[in-house]
Design brief:
Layout: H1 3-14, H2 21-32, H3 40-47, H4 55-59, H5 67-80, H6 84-105, H7 138-158, H8 168-182
């Protein structure tokens, strides 16, 4: 799935409990950090390699798309939150929803299927779903649109948007504009 969709999934999960802005950020972060292993694409571009034959293809969906990384993210959320158990649990859920999203909606062009090395580094076994839809398929777009609708509802009802993660001032301005428009 698209990283923006993953961010919206994590942020939406964070709305399910009474968490501070910092705790919501931790839960959201847990939902996007698996894609850090995709940063190998930058190394590929710098080295003049095609990502399909370089670090991106080798490490994406391996290094941070596994149970060990999910536990690490939950521990980080636990260590940095006030509502430790709630934040850690929601972070773990957010992380795993990222993996689920990739498992069902990250096929490449021509039907190439992404696999997940969920038990890495303890096992090399990879999991895949043969029904995986392409990254730009309509189900991914629909999921993103539903999450945007949820974000709009949260903005109007609770007074916050995903912008709260980077700029409380911009978040407040967007909320004010949405409330003025939609009441």
């Amino acid at each position: 799935m698209n990283p923006i969709t993953h961010l919206l999934v994590g942020w939406t999960v964070a709305q399910s409990a009474k968490l501070s802005r910092r705790e919501r950020a931790l839960v959201t972060l847990a939902g996007v950090t698996p894609d850090l292993d995709g940063m190998g694409i930058l190394l590929d571009f710098a080295a003049g390699r095609h990502p399909a034959a370089g670090a991106y293809a080798t490490y994406h969906h391996v290094l941070a798309h596994n149970l060990a990384a999910g536990v690490l993210m939950a521990l980080l959320a636990f260590a940095l939150a006030r509502r430790r158990w709630v934040c850690a649990a929601l972070g773990f859920v957010s992380f795993h929803l990222h993996l689920l999203g990739d498992l069902v909606g990250s096929a490449g062009p021509g039907g190439s299927i992404w696999t997940l090395a969920y038990l890495h580094p303890f096992s090399d076994r990879a999991f895949a779903w043969q029904g995986q839809w392409e990254l730009n398929a309509w189900p991914n777009l629909l999921v993103t649109l539903v999450l945007l609708a949820v974000a709009l509802w949260v903005a109007i009802r609770r007074g916050r948007t995903p912008l709260e993660l980077v700029s409380p001032r911009a978040d407040a301005a967007v909320v004010a504009a949405l409330r003025a428009r939609f009441g």
